[in-house]
Amino acid sequence: MAETERHVRLFRNGRNQALRIPREFELDGDEAIVRKEGDRLVIEPVRKGRLLALLASLEPLEERFPDVDEDLAPLNEVEL
What we know:
Blueprint: E1 10-13, E2 16-19, E3 32-37, E4 40-45, H1 50-57
Antiparallel strand pairs: 1-2, 3-4
């Protein structure tokens, strides 16, 4: 079983605080999202293209959408 925590040292890189991510915690890709939750930092990889793959895997809807315009007055003709 992989370790779930590890002691690391923080250092300065110019005006930024940084840390080296140990090999066993490496993230896929070359971008990440960092957010602060209380006194914790959460780092997540940016996963690109996953929404399109999810949408492609869904079955089409059989339900018809309601006509939301049926009670509206007709549009005025516009000349350009």
